[in-house]
Amino acid sequence: MRKLLSLFIILITGFIFIGRLFYMQVVDTSFVALSESNAISVDYDYPQRGYIFDRNGELLVSNQPSYDVMAIPREIKPFDTLEFSGLLNISKERLENQLDKAKIFSPRLPSVIVPQLTKNEFAYLQEKMRKYEGFYIQKRSLRDYKTDNSASVLGYISEVTNAEVDELTYYKSGDLIGRSGVEKQYEDVLRGVKGVKYTQKDRFNREIGSYKEGVYDTLPVKGKDITLTLDAKLQAYGEELMRGKRGGIVAIEPSSGEILSLITAPSYDPDLLVGRKRSKNFTKLWYDSINKPLLNRGLQAMYPPGSPFKALTGLIALEENVIDTKEGISCHMGFSYGRSARMGCHHHASPLSMTPALAQSCNTYFAKSYRRIIEKFESSEKGMDAWNKHLESFGLGGFLGNDLPVGQPGRIPDGEYYNKWYPGGRWTATYTLSNAIGQGEVLTTPIQLANFTAAIANRGWFYTPHILKEIDDNPIKNEKFTKKKQTTISKENFEPIIEGMFGVYEYGTAKFLKIPGVEICGKTGTAENFTKIDGERTQLTDHSIFVAFAPKDNPKIAIAVVVENGYWGSRYAGRIASLMIEKYLKEEISRTDLEKWILNNSLEEEYAKPFSGESFLINQ
Amino acid sequence: MGKSSEIDWITILLFLILVGFGWMNIYSASLNDASNGFFDMSQTYGRQALFIGLSVLLVIFILSIEAKFYERFASVIYITSLLSLLGLFVFGKTISGATSWYSFGSFSLQPSEFAKAATALALAKYLSDIQTDIKLIKHQVGAFLIIFLPALIIIPQPDPGSALVYLAFFFPLYREGISGVYLLIGSSLISIFILTLLIGSIWVSLAIIGLGILIFFFRRNKKKKYISYYFLIASIAMLFSFSVNYIFENVFEQRHRDRFNIVLGKEVDSKGIGYNTNQSEIAIGSGGWTGKGWTQGTQTKGNFVPEQHTDYIFSTVGEEWGFLGSSILVVLFMCLFIRILFVAERQKSQFSRIYGYSVAGILFIHFLVNIGMVLGIFPTVGIPLPFFSYGGSGLWGFTILLFIFVKLDSNRKNYQF
């Protein structure tokens, strides 16, 4: 027994030690992180973000260096806060406040104390930083905008949130990420890959060499440059024309689906969202609920398309063989249907066949065509579905699938939609007759308008509109944008419609907008719209809408313009479309009076009406 | 009868493995940019290599001396050792706060490292004397005097760690038949000590009273006179608890209190006194299953653990060799201790057996206190890990201690009553 006690004590001790070792080394994994945090420092080398060019190689966005003053709270030695805050050009209270916040975030991890100093501020600070232990300067690159327009297309970058740091492993606190537009859409392409360097530190936090001879270190990879399909000159011109108006312009090159111009108005200077002023300006833009400058109206605003939609109604009617191009339909300032319903029309010659009916924008002709389409089928529901399928093939009633991060699907009703409205299927074509002329339940975004115009210009096909042309000078290969989409309408049926759109300029609703020497096809639209004022549905001045493409043969540009509450399609939208086409095709404006009219006319008064609190007149 | 000599190669093999593995870890812990080959004498690991080389010469010397010499001259060796300790008060050199060193030029010796072996020899000689009966109080006092005399000289140097080692002689004393009461008293005092620090004297006293009442009612011997014994023991226990409290609060300095508080988990101070323990725990804990690899420990390279090549050498093992390496090392030490006990038991000579138990006890208590400290189980006490920690005096002290026993064992067949 006495012999065994010593043995017993030795064995017990050994097992306790091994147990303790097992717990510390295998079970409790927190020591690993502690070891890494105090013995290895990780330094990131941020690459330049890729440049952004327009389709003609004009530089739109480059970079400027920016310097963040960072601090690691636990490494800060006592220092003269008053002197340091003076150097940083902030108040002493603000510095102390920032340091407290950093401490709460993490004593071990770096936090931004003063973000985004300019080069000059940095130069002044640089030499004096050494005195302040625990502080250092992290170089990053910020955007430098070479243009004052296209903000909604280009987007902006800002610091990642803490939630994003947790979710996306690539990003560390203080990193920048694309927030909207192409900056968001092509974040992975533009940002490049940051380099990382692991450094072994000793207990005084001095660097004593690279960790494991640098096997884990990587070099930064520069972000790729991208070329957009935008035409910067056209873009700038469009924004200028839209000054004082609200709405959107989308111009597409029909042969490729490339977006030549994507304008939303009102807009803002992209430089407002760079650097230290970003957060203040962003708040201002965000809370502007009247102008909504952050809303991309070209992509996100859904408008009733109005008369341009008649072109589609005509196409479907021809495809479904419910009318031919010769048949004339008479119209006497509108027509009556149902028991007491009447659709009005304006004064024009009668009867008209398809081509002049489109040129003169006869409501009666297309309402009757629509009715025949729906009634061709055994039920209204099936007729509605057939109509819907044709329109969907033009990219309407659903997301287009373009490469911009925001969008809206628009609305093209089908049979089921009306079955919900009128349970039991007891509805007929006349119930939905307004759809024929782009009112009723139909809603489209400007980019959808431009896209179907491009499809008409191409006589039956289109490429999905896209904004990216090249990455590092290599043309895009994404099949989504390089594969033709075919519409359900046969090629030959387009000719009478295109002739009608040509007639709009020759003898129709836009004959005063002809561009000398260019064969141009278009369609005006004047869309009724409503808003709610104090809970009451109130009609506002009609939206001025215009779609056009030119030249008639071998089209180079298809464009859609929507000017909110601009009244007649030819008044604002028609003029702007005409000027845009001239600018793009001829690069010079011959009709300076027209240009002057647009530049000098603003709709601010019209926009102020619903907020005036008084009753007001519309459509003046 | 011819003399035969059988060296215990298992012990020697364990010794070589420990010394070799120890040197590898010292190399890693002291590696720096100025390193210039394994035997660079300007470097810690280079000097340790020299110390190991010299210890081999020491081994040959020890083994070549007649075994009888150690028994016969035990008293002389012991007295010489005591004198060398006393001499420190006159000639001693102070290194890091402790006057424990004799200095010979650039070279220093720590006599307390050698006093352990001397005390073991003296105790073995005294207990194996035919006239000594350990069951008699008189002789127990004699044995305690031999053991605690060097400890008493060492404490005021101050070097409480080295003094603590003398508790190791409980191993041979118990083996040779001292009463188990001492063990009971010892462990009771330690329990009361720790509990007092943890929960305070009041609760400890209540617990003692409660325990006393329980034992009283369930006692087997119903004689009345025992009541006064219970009363006496309980009173002493409570008095001890209160005095511990008093000593802790009023006699101990803050740094001593901190050391206990950290182990008891009452305070977390990772920057000040707790820094060593905290960093050594981080280093060991970050080793994982298999460690970061020899010379690849980030904590070791960054010199986060102070004294890593001496008292905290085990943290290097933990970090670079992981759970696998460090538990194998623990097992190796256990093998050595058990081998020594086994060899001690096969001795015909009582002197050799007592000496063997002393060797096992001394090595074990170093192992216990050192690794316990590095793992954060024990308070911080500066005491080296045998054969592992850097230092010439330590290595030679342990080598002498172990190889005298190897010599005694090799001579066991020649022993005559």
Radius of gyration of chain B: 23 Å
Low-confidence spans of chain B: pLDDT under 50, at least 5 residues?
Answer: none
Q: What is the strand arrangement across the widest sheet of chain B?
A: 1-2-3
Relative strand content of chain B:
under 5%
Please summarize the sheet with the most strands of chain B.
3 strands, antiparallel
Counted by DSSP, the helix tally of chain B is 17
Largest interface in this structure: A-B, 37 and 46 residues
Q: Using only CA atoms, what is the Rg of chain A?
A: 32 Å
Average of per-residue pLDDT values of chain A: 86
**Structural class designation of chain B:** mainly alpha
Strand content of chain A: 15-25%
Give the proportion of residues in helices of chain B: 55-70%
- How many extended strands of chain A? 21
Pfam family, one (chain A): Transpeptidase
Organism (chain A): Mesonia algae
Domain Penicillin-binding protein transpeptidase (chain A): 247-578
Main location (chain A): membrane
